[in-house]
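Please decode residue identities from the backbone states below.
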């Protein structure tokens, strides 16, 4: 095919054009017919998409079909929990199924390519796009990101109902300074390789069709012009055979970054770096041919890029059939889609706190319940960010779900109390207090509206917005049990309310079926099983705070920490401290990575290692006994952490290396086993090569990253 293409047609393949309704005109149709468009995005009317495909296939000289892109991030019409919530399921199967449902619905609209998963590691809850991420941990994000890729792409990409996935944003975008979206990132190469690039490698290994270059500046070279990332790492080291798309107009932004003087030089940099397709900017269309004619860009480079794009089109089966017959695909929001959304929501919700077993509620023991807050009945808000096509009419809100679950048995009162999550205190707070005081238990639906997270929606203060904390305090004064159900697009700092509530269910933005999931958890139909995929700071000043940190030369411990209020002015300064902590926040998060309570009570004992010493290339098994000491059956997510005690570069104090979902009946004990190959312990060292170093390792098994149940083993090199 390449041999038959003119240079202008090749450049056309590298050009992606916005085709949202307002952009569909004769000009676009003519450009497609002229072979000047390789891909469109943002058109979701299936008849229009089929018409654009028809022009490409029948009217263009070579009949090359279009890639039709769309941000299908966590669902199409049926919305799954935000990706950060999905990460809290620690369940690759449900994540895969969620993506599969999304693909089927999107494919019905003619979409054949999504810009997901976003697998940017983020250690900064201020960053609005943390909502779209899979959290702070490279292992968890790798496992779940790969599952999402598989869900979108199915077993055979050419099957109807599958769509190509995009791993984004390559790379480092989640490390934006101060969590301000689009801001600069500075990530040393060793950290980049050991943390930020790992999920991308996993996505490539899972067969992801495309990668998207990030908007951000990485150590002085914006990602879209970064040859190291896209040629050395992606192509030479990883052997990626798919294609790279820029982010929206990010080629031309190279000039705004200050890397180039004009669009033509930006195109030169992006081509040199390896951006195969330009999204939206159309500067490739205007400058690639000149650069080739001037001899600055070898046509062989262009051919390789176009081949990358065409390969995706062949892989998708578009040359056999570019058209969509919506009737041949399952109905939108069918039973399975809604059930997947419900199960994903159920598994994503994290019980952060549950004092004296206030949860689960028992409808038999209650006469009345008060539902108060701006997010109890907010069908749009519960869907979260990035839901271009999500349908709020499908949403079942917690208020409705609670009504249908227990409304026949108990008196359910509802008061929104705040117009939205940012509202200030108002006289409705008095009404809230009155209803609360008159009810047996208070369910406070707090959090963030969806607009407070997502792209370009970062926050510097991550407390509950508006006067929600004041509402909590007022309701608390009634003396009634108070349960906070928090929906948000990021970890929030909850220090100022945590002591004023008895329980906290953290529900992220749970999606279409968030309401039934929340109701079932509140009333004990199911036990919570979600675990945090990201640390919750006590105060925003602790950020970045993440569990897999380095030890430092002065690691803190409880006995070295002094709180600012306890400093005795007369004591010599050196009588405490000299370790790595904050005087006003200590060094631990409020809730640690991996944390999440259950209605059962789990305990771990008897950790064992299969051999105290193994050779490089061998496998070790680490196991522990897990018991359900509670009186309900429930799922626990058992986690394995490892520490490599000595390395030629310093190693994290703990790293997640395995996890398992286990369902246990009351009184049941099971042995959870994790097999680790010495390759699983490999890291990039001083010379930036991936290797496993012999030496001593600690291993922990438990229900969070704070587990103390430890064993150890040694790796030797007997060769
Ligand atoms: C975002 C991408 C997204 C693209 C297309 C950009 O602003 O950064 O993640 O895929 O828009 O909508």
């Amino acid at each position: 095919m390449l041999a038959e293409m003119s240079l202008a047609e090749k450049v056309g393949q590298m050009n992606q054009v916005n085709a949202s309704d307002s952009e569909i005109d004769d000009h676009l149709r003519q450009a497609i017919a002229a072979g000047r468009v390789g891909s469109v995005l943002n058109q979701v009317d299936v008849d229009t998409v089929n018409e654009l495909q028809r022009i490409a296939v029948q009217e263009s000289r070579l009949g090359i079909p279009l890639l039709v892109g769309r941000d299908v991030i966590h669902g199409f019409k049926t919305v799954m929990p935000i990706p950060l919530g999905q990460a809290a399921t620690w369940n690759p199967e449900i994540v895969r199924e969620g993506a599969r449902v999304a693909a089927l619905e999107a494919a019905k609209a003619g979409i054949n390519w999504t810009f997901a998963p976003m697998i940017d590691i983020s250690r900064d809850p201020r960053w609005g796009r943390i909502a779209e991420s899979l959290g702070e941990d490279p292992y968890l994000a790798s496992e779940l990101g790969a599952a999402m890729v598989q869900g979108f792409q199915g077993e055979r990409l050419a099957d109807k109902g599958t769509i190509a996935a995009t791993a984004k944003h390559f790379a480092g975008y989640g490390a934006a300074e101060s969590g301000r979206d689009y801001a600069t990132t500075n990530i040393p190469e060793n950290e980049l390789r050991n943390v930020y690039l790992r999920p991308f490698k996993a996505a490539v290994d899972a067969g992801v069709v495309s990668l998207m270059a990030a908007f951000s500046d990485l150590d002085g070279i914006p990602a879209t012009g970064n040859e190291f990332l896209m040629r050395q790492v992606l192509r030479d080291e990883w052997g990626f055979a798919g294609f790279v798309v820029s982010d929206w107009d990010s080629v031309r932004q190279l000039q705004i970054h200050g890397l180039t003087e004009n669009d033509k030089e930006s195109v030169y940099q992006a081509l040199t770096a390896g951006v195969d397709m330009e999204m939206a900017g159309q500067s490739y269309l205007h400058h690639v041919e000149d650069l080739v004619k001037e001899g600055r860009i070898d046509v062989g480079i262009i051919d390789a890029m176009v081949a990358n794009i065409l390969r995706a089109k062949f892989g998708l089966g578009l040359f056999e059939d570019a058209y969509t017959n919506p009737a041949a695909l399952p109905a939108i929001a069918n039973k399975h889609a809604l059930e997947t959304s419900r199960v994903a929501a159920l598994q994503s919700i994290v019980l952060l706190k549950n004092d004296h077993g206030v949860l689960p509620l028992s409808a038999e023991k209650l006469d009345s319940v008060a539902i108060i807050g701006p997010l109890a009945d907010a069908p749009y808000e519960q869907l979260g960010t990035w839901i271009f096509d999500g349908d709020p009419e499908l949403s079942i809100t917690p208020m409705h779900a609670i009504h249908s679950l227990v409304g026949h048995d108990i008196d359910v009162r509802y008061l929104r109390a705040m117009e939205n999550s940012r509202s200030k205190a108002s006289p409705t707070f008095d009404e809230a207090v009155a209803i609360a005081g008159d009810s047996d238990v208070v369910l406070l639906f707090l959090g963030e509206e969806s607009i407070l997270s997502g792209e370009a929606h970062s926050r510097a203060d991550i407390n509950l917005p508006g006067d929600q904390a004041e509402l909590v305090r007022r309701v608390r004064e009634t003396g009634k049990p108070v349960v906070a159900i928090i929906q948000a697009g990021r970890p929030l700092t909850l220090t100022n309310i945590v002591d004023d509530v008895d329980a906290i269910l953290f529900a992220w933005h749970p999606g279409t079926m968030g309401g039934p999931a929340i109701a079932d958890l509140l009333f004990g139909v199911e036990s919570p099983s979600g675990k945090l995929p990201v640390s919750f700071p006590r105060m925003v000043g602790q950020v970045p705070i993440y569990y897999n940190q380095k030890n430092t030369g002065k690691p803190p411990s409880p006995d070295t920490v002094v709180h600012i209020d306890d400093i005795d002015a007369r004591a010599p300064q050196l009588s405490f401290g000299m370790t790595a902590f904050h005087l006003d926040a200590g060094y631990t998060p409020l809730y640690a990575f991996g944390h999440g309570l259950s209605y059962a009570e789990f305990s771990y004992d008897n950790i064992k290692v299969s051999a105290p010493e193994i050779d490089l290339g061998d496998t070790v098994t680490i196991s522990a006994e897990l018991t359900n000491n509670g009186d309900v059956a429930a799922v626990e997510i058992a986690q394995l952490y490892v520490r490599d005690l000595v390395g030629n570069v310093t190693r994290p104090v703990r790293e997640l290396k395995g996890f398992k979902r286990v369902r246990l009946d009351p009184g049941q004990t099971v042995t959870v086993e994790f097999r680790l190959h010495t390759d699983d312990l490999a890291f990039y060292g001083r010379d930036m090569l991936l290797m496993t170093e012999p030496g001593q390792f600690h291993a922990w098994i438990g229900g969070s990253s704070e587990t103390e149940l430890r064993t150890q083993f040694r790796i030797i090199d007997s060769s």
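Observation: Residues 71, 115, 168, 247-248, 455 surround beta-D-glucopyranose (CB under 6 Å).
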